[in-house]
Amino acid sequence: MPNKMRALSRAVACAIAVPALILPTAFGALAPAAAASVSTLADFEGGAPTGFFAYGSAGYGVLDVAPGSPDARPGQTSPTKVLSYGFNITAAGSFGGVGHNFATAGDWTGFQGVSYWLRGSGNGSALQFEIFDGGANSDSSERFDYTITDDVAGWREIQIPWASFTRATDYQPGGAPNDGLNLTTMWGYALPAARGADTVLVDDIALYSAADVTATATLSASTYEVIEGRAAAVEVRLNVAPTTPITVDYATSDGTAGATDYTSSTGTLTFAAGQTTQSISVATTDDAAEEPSETLAVTLSNPVGAALGSPSAATLTILDNDAAPVGPPTGRTLLVENFEAPLPVGSAGAVQVGWFAAQDPSSTVGFASTDALPAPVPADPPTQGNTALSADFTVQSFGVVVNNFTNDTASAWTTQDWSSYEGIGFWMYGNGSGTRLFLDIEDNRNPGSTTDDAERFVVEYTDNWTGWKFQQFDFADFVRKNINNNAPNDGLGLTDVHGFALGALRTPGTQTFYYDDVLLYGQAAEVPLTVGFDRAGYEVTEGADATATVRLNRVATEPVTVAFQTEESAARTATEDLPATQGRDFTAASGTVTIPAGQREATITVPTLQNAKHEVDETFLVALTNPVGAEFGFVRTATVSIQDDDAIDKALVEDFESYPWLFDTEGGLDLALRETAADTGYAGADAHENVLDIAYDDGAKLVRDFAAGQDWSAYKGLSFWYNGEGTGDKVTVSVADNEAPDPGPSDWVQSWSDEFEGPAGAPANPDNWSYETGGWGWGNDELQYYTDSTDNAALDGNGNLVITAREIDPATTDLVCWYGPCTNTSARLISEQKQEFEYGRIESRVQVPKGSGIWPAVWTLGNDFREVGWPQTGEIDVMEFVGRLPNEIFGTIHGPGYSGGNSIGNTYTFDVPVSDDWHTFSMEWTPERIDWFVDGIQYHSATPADVAPNEWVYDHPFSLLTNVAVGGNFGGAPGADLVFPQSLTVDYIRVFQAADTAERFEAKFVDNKVGWRQVTIPFADLRRSKDQPAGAPKDGLTLTDVNGYGFAFTGTGAASLDKVTLLQTLPPKGCVKPGKPCRKE
């Protein structure tokens, strides 16, 4: 469940840690089951269905396939047609796919999932299946997807149950709902290409159910429109193809329309076997009277062989066409484009400027200025010549004519300031075609951009009139439109408008529209002058100066000042980054910055500090306060991520820069971490060097057991800095070498556990757990802010850890989440740098919360995730539960090429809700295999063959996590059944592994010097220890699989330790020069 991608595209499906099902077949695909009911969406026998489209780097055709040919399906006995779909998603930023937009929405609630036949090449490319749920139409519906890898050459049938779909993270239309997969209003589907290049065949896309689905007859919509004088077509449809004829009666009835306005229509529709749609025709009367639009009702009744579904009644509106056109609003206007001059065409670098067309690969768009108009524009005198824009749209998915503002030579992308106007309008000649149309505004771009990353805002309207009409839209009616171009997300500012576009969606045939006199109108309420950062986050290389830009939303006539200060980040701002430390990683900075009159921006510079140590990227904040002359804008606090530039020192075993939680202690031993001053440490110490202070009693031990064996065979010895007291006491240095072979799960013993014993209200044991904090969405658009408060995670006094998600008032909280003031709090605990494990059985007994939108988990994450990122680090989910699927639990792995919606996992389904009782979840993990169990029942396994040709990334140590998320891409939107607070109660987390059998070797040195010295232990001096664990090998010091090391003390005293390092070359014996390594005598 970690990691938010910094750039998302169609090619990078990163619904981070969203477990979807790849059912346990040899192919990693969904195994087809016998379906009692099937409703075909597309069989391609009549070609591509109406509304089918392609986009991006993809295209399609329909092929004839003869039986017995190389492309024939198994068992095919007659000629058939299939879809041929090609794509190339190999270039950075590329995307593409095919899809099917429905003219009317369908109800899929009676089905269990979607199926299709796929003929792949087995080359490892990947396809998603994406469904369009809810909203007013397919372009405003919520996207859910599932990914299939093309790892099989030949035909196979794929079935995807609804539970496997997760909310898409690479694309959601502007205004899309976020209310989970409802299935009641489905507007279409797509097959986006997720990666690779391939040509595949697709056939028989259908809905399926293992049970019989009752046929229902419904109208395709609850409202229809028709222009006066035309006949309305009211579609009636069945949700499933019948095997025997079905009939249903229909009738019209008066509303505000009467007998003089339309012809009454009654009758019976008969659906033949296999037929799913019929149409009712209602004729209307064309009169010359100007009148309001009028309505009538169309009603279904008396179905035979089916039930009535919803809607079974609809309102039909007759649109009057006799009123004279209403022109532009009176008052203040500004003409933007009247098409009287030639349309400029050019480029500014890689960006087209002036006028151009864009469309999906299945569509065509043409445009030109013309004076051959179907009728004069009402605003122009009949005797005066006039030129307008003519645009021809033949559109399957989308087509658009774009005007990117430019200069006189069409060589630069220029801007206009529309911020003082209320709205935009234009004359348009309509055809009454019912085509959905849209107007885009291209607002501001990122500072310094050389690409088309203009933020888009859109308003839609319908071609439901004939002749000229002045269309006008207040700017308040526009909504943000995400086209995955890395645009700013700072609202419709209108101070830097880069252009506009006139578009159409799915035209019936070719439609020619005419446009004229694009103008701005009205006086907008004065937009306050605002000041803020020009972006939410910056990056800087360690040691360089970070520069943050403070920007006004427009040029001011007076200077604007704002105070700023740097701050340490208390919460996480990204999965990989850790908080930076003031004075060690960056220099504190504060002051006031002034933006002079007539300018829009100024910069803040913050020095960062260089060191020679490799560390993860670290983040600090720059916050603005006390603006003078302006209000705060969109971003008042920005993050600065310091990018580390130091190479990993592979010979460095331990540097003690953080508390050594991974060390075990025996006997009387107190540890403390201390930062040394530059003049009090050892020779060569960093300016900010942490060392470990040790106070010991006789016989005390400090031991580090490695979660995974390390290969030290290329080194000659072990070196470390030691600050002694010169007591003459001996210190024993031990090395745990190789172990006996792992006996397997049946002989594993408990190696660690947290039983969560302690008083009620106490936090989780800090020796085992850290509380992660923050509200940045955690890669999944989650709603909660994770806190370190015991209100959200604490012991209950009965041997349990209770993680509680709570609802808070966003109007009163100081907690800020990615979407604004937070609505929920919860907790997330991680054992990073405290407990880590490679292989074994991880087991947890828990009782999960309930309610749609709740998402608890017990899981593991690779311990190198801050270095390599997610999903390269690997993730193993021991248990995930989402409240919207109350009877199911998930076990999943995520790795490179199979993460998020393409992860490999399975579910176990209970007969009753999971939350009704306690359950024990476990995962058995070996180098060759991972198995998942619930209450002792195995329900899933994964092996390297299942992820091939991708990498198996589970042969290294992992940390433990447990948390409760709210909402998110997999958790889904909180439902009405989610009542807060909700808690995950954890009885225990236990780890079982092979018993410790590592062979021990040791050597001694004497604390014979006061102060710091560098001690070297040659491996040749190590001797086999007298005390050995049961079953230890006796094969000599191999150093190829070192399992740990440690120190044992004699006497009572104190010492300091730092920089444990492997040496490839041994120094000469004795301390030859100060600061040089000293071998023991």
UniProtKB/TrEMBL annotation:
<dbReference type="InterPro" id="IPR005087">
    <property type="entry name" value="CBM11"/>
</dbReference>
<keyword id="KW-0677">Repeat</keyword>
<dbReference type="GO" id="GO:0016020">
    <property type="term" value="C:membrane"/>
</dbReference>
<feature type="signal peptide">
    <location>
        <begin position="1"/>
        <end position="31"/>
    </location>
</feature>
<dbReference type="Pfam" id="PF03425">
    <property type="entry name" value="CBM_11"/>
</dbReference>
<dbReference type="Pfam" id="PF00722">
    <property type="entry name" value="Glyco_hydro_16"/>
</dbReference>
<dbReference type="InterPro" id="IPR008979">
    <property type="entry name" value="Galactose-bd-like_sf"/>
</dbReference>
<comment type="similarity">
    <text>Belongs to the glycosyl hydrolase 16 family.</text>
</comment>
<keyword id="KW-0732">Signal</keyword>
<keyword id="KW-0378">Hydrolase</keyword>
<protein>
    <submittedName>
        <fullName>Glycosyl hydrolase family protein</fullName>
    </submittedName>
</protein>
<dbReference type="InterPro" id="IPR000757">
    <property type="entry name" value="Beta-glucanase-like"/>
</dbReference>
<dbReference type="GO" id="GO:0030245">
    <property type="term" value="P:cellulose catabolic process"/>
</dbReference>
<dbReference type="Pfam" id="PF03160">
    <property type="entry name" value="Calx-beta"/>
</dbReference>
<dbReference type="InterPro" id="IPR013320">
    <property type="entry name" value="ConA-like_dom_sf"/>
</dbReference>
<dbReference type="InterPro" id="IPR003644">
    <property type="entry name" value="Calx_beta"/>
</dbReference>
<feature type="domain" description="GH16">
    <location>
        <begin position="735"/>
        <end position="997"/>
    </location>
</feature>
<dbReference type="InterPro" id="IPR050546">
    <property type="entry name" value="Glycosyl_Hydrlase_16"/>
</dbReference>
<dbReference type="GO" id="GO:0007154">
    <property type="term" value="P:cell communication"/>
</dbReference>
<keyword id="KW-0106">Calcium</keyword>
<dbReference type="InterPro" id="IPR038081">
    <property type="entry name" value="CalX-like_sf"/>
</dbReference>
<dbReference type="GO" id="GO:0008810">
    <property type="term" value="F:cellulase activity"/>
</dbReference>
